[in-house]
Amino acid sequence: MLAAAALGACGGGSDSGGGDTDVTWAVSSGWESWNENTADGNTSYLHQALSPGTTALGDFDQDAQWVFNDALLAKAPELTSESPMTVAYTLNENAQWSDGDPFDVDDFIYIWHQMSGKAEHCDQTQCLPASTDWGANVASIEQEGDVVTMTYVDGYLDPEWQYFQTPMYPAHIAEANGFPDWATDPAQMGGSATWFTQNAPTWSTGPYKPVDASPGEFVAFEPNENYQGSTKPGLDKLTMKVVEGTEAIITELRQGSIDGAWPSEFSQEELDKVADDEAVTTEVYEGSIWLHIDTNMNNTFLADQALRQAVFTAIDNKDIIAKAYPDTEVEPRLNHFFNQQSEFFVDALGATDPLQGSGDEAAANEALEAAGYTTGDTLMTPEGEPVTLNFRYGEGDATRTLAGELVQSYLAEIGIDVKLEAIPDGQLGTVLSEGDFDLVIFGWSGTPAFTTAPQQYFGSDSSSNFGQFRLDGLDEAIAKVRSTTDIAEAAQFANDVEAMVVPQAFTLPVFDEPQSTVYLNGALAGIVANGNSQAGPMWNIQEWKPA
């Protein structure tokens, strides 16, 4: 999902004397939670801020190939059985946390209990998992020697079984902070999840460990002396610092107060300011973040499918792109699960009638009149109420702000009064999880993996289903996506889900957001742009070094 203060004595940018082992990297927005696996902590910004020390079993490289984390695993995971589906993880014999405590089966079980969605594992008012698609289907996790074996429930299959990317949290830290019985007491498990939400990490299995932090402001890292990866960290200090917005990022980069950034908002205007600066490297590439506009089914007006369809028909995706990214080749997003470059792409939006994202006011009005609405300067419901909505967007993000202003103008043309309400920095997760919106624009950060997305976006029990979307038969259709080990068959099932949800006009895909990475080439080397990782250029942070 994708959602500051100045940092004091936490290091700065490089000086004019070449490479710097004390690096500051900007993150575009803040965060409120420290637990990535909860609905409100599942943001791109927190993930970026914690990426130097995060505990994940692997990631996608710049060529969309899966690379296992050799600090934790001795080799790639293995599928040892399909009935029941069983996956074996052979641990690096020295796998450990930064405090020297072993990384082992307890850490797998801990994250399973947090992500299962089951009351017997965790108090669900506290665990609040971002998705239960994986955890709900695990039957057992055991360890023998260096091999952790994960067995799934009978009948469950997953074509992307090897792509385990869930950030893992240390069970022994939970035990040391008052939750010794987390594995058997759902109340303690819930309490530990809340503790991880409220407390900044001091642990790591990554190349760097956190040494100081402030929520929504910064995380400072130093090398993890117990890191077991094959590539040792090359920086003496690394600070992930919030700098709100691309304009501010470029300003601080030119001043030398930061060394680089992966801006969440693509701005050609800002990038042009450093285009001729030989000290700055700028890379532009296709990324994994795509913007969408969601409806809230708890809104009295938007509970009506006909109104949702008309709203999405009045919105002009191509016009938003033309005004946000003039003279670029950015294309509209036409499918929730696959972009136009995917072999599994189907134009789902193009099959809608009236045509969503087209900006066709006449078609929108015609559909409304057919549903009993009175059109004109003020749209009236069949019951005689004027339709009014709010539209939420990230404060300080020029693209999302522009989109809000355009949506306001599009909907005014069909008689809907829209009030624009900015979301303060760092509060996107809270606004979404509390359903504090009628319409909202934000970004999902994806990867080449797709099979968990249908459940996360549209599952009736998903805490990331912020709009409370419901449809008879939808959960059953979603379950089929992970009922096979055949990736093409799973993709067809995902497109079947797509064919169900798109006509409902729950959420409107707008476009795949272009990505950029900017950094001082006199300060840093080893940075590889990666549009396939949710960590962006931080995916190989262990390989960063002074220039």
C-alpha Rg, in Å?
Answer: 23 Å
The CATH H-level homologous superfamily of one domain? Dipeptide-binding Protein, Domain 3
Using the coordinates above, name the CATH class of one domain: Alpha Beta
Order of strands across the widest beta sheet?
A: 8-9-10-1-11-16-12-15-13-14
* Total strand segments: 18
Q: What features would you describe in this structure?
A:
This protein is an alpha+beta fold. It has a domain at 288-513: Dipeptide-binding Protein, domain 3. Helix content is 24%, strand content 20%. It starts with 21 loop residues before the first strand and ends with a strand. Residues 1-19 have low confidence and may be disordered.
Q: What distinguishing features does this structure have?
A:
Solute-binding protein family 5 domain-containing protein; disordered N terminus; single chain; globular; 15 helices; about 550 residues; SBP_5_dom; peptide transmembrane transporter activity; Dipeptide-binding Protein, domain 3; alpha+beta; 18 strands; 4-stranded antiparallel sheet; SBP_5; 10-stranded mixed sheet
Helix-strand layout with pairing:
Layout: E1 22-27, H1 44-50, E2 58-60, E3 66-68, E4 78-82, E5 85-90, H2 105-115, H3 124-127, E6 138-144, E7 147-152, H4 171-176, H5 186-198, E8 208-214, E9 218-223, E10 237-242, H6 246-255, E11 260-261, H7 268-272, E12 280-295, H8 305-314, H9 317-324, H10 361-370, E13 388-394, H11 398-412, E14 417-423, H12 428-433, E15 439-445, H13 453-458, H14 474-481, H15 487-501, E16 507-520, E17 524-525, E18 545-546
Parallel strand pairs: 1-10, 1-11, 13-14, 13-15
Antiparallel strand pairs: 2-3, 4-5, 5-7, 6-7, 8-9, 9-10, 11-16, 12-15, 12-16, 17-18
Helix pairs in contact: 8-10, 14-15
GO molecular function: peptide transmembrane transporter activity
InterPro entries: Peptide/Ni-bd, SBP_5, SBP_5_dom
Organism: Glycomyces algeriensis
